[in-house]
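To fix ideas at the outset, we first show an illustrative case, written as a sequence plus integers encoding its fold:
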Amino acid sequence: MPLISSTYKRPAFLANKHLETIYPALFRPDAQLVTQTERLELPDGDFLDLDWYRQGSSKLMIVSHGLEGSSKSTYARWMAKRLIAEGYDVLIWNFRGCSDTPNRLLRFYHSGDSQDLRTMLELAVFPADYQDLILIGFSMGGNITLKYLGEQENILDARLRCAVTFSVPCDLASGAAHLAKWESMVYMNRFMRSLKKKVREKATRYPALDPKPLEGIRTFDAFDEMYTAPLHGFKNAQDYWHVNSSLFYIQQIKLPTILITAQNDPFLTQACYPVEEARKMQDFFLEISKHGGHCGFSQFNNTGFYWSEDRCVEFIQQYL
């Protein structure tokens, strides 16, 4: 019964779930890392931009960012800094269209795009370079990570040791409906501004892509119905959400994997907490803290590292 009691305690001044979520995103300073960037050419003619932090380790930590994030996202870079402090190499990969350069194809990325994770592992992470691989995913990147592990079952890269995920919207349909509510509009509006900007840019290069409907779109429901689903081969938004929700893949995971999430996450519904699945499994661990917000888990000490970063290191060191 891999349900883990959490030790996380939020700082007193972050008195609600929205402050816990927004404070790290807006006020945490940059991690101050020197990046080595690589452009990975893909078989379909597109590319992925990868940020490497190498120091000669045989152990590589692979970080997947969240929706409309990037390798420059504060949470991803601070996680990299924490892992570098332990002596590991780190790779933060950008989903298609999430680096500083728009991707080439009409399609971009989506919330269950595990094929790009698989391709990136096959093409960029060479066996001669690393003996041990760890997957780390935040929010949507966590959903992709869990889906990838559940899809692979017994054909995983033999170097994979474990995976750590945070604040995962395991059920995309209920998550989309929840973020469409009035209380969540501050988050929805931010996502919509960024996603619409990408569609408008793409429409300048692909005349068949009509940007006019964007004016009336306010939620994931409408955006995914009009753009995400058809651009990526799904029948509609409901089909896209169902096929790509990691909730339906978790029970097939055979690699030691933890989902760390907060009970007060403003992005998630009850369906995004796979308690029953965790109770039935040996290798999937679920840790639900009372507080933490969405990808928050702030703490203040002399190191500058957050509780989530320390907890990640604690978990992975059990399997290295």
About this structure: The chain has one domain: 3-171+245-316. The first strand starts at residue 3 and ends at 5. Residues 104 and 201 are 11 Å apart (CA to CA).
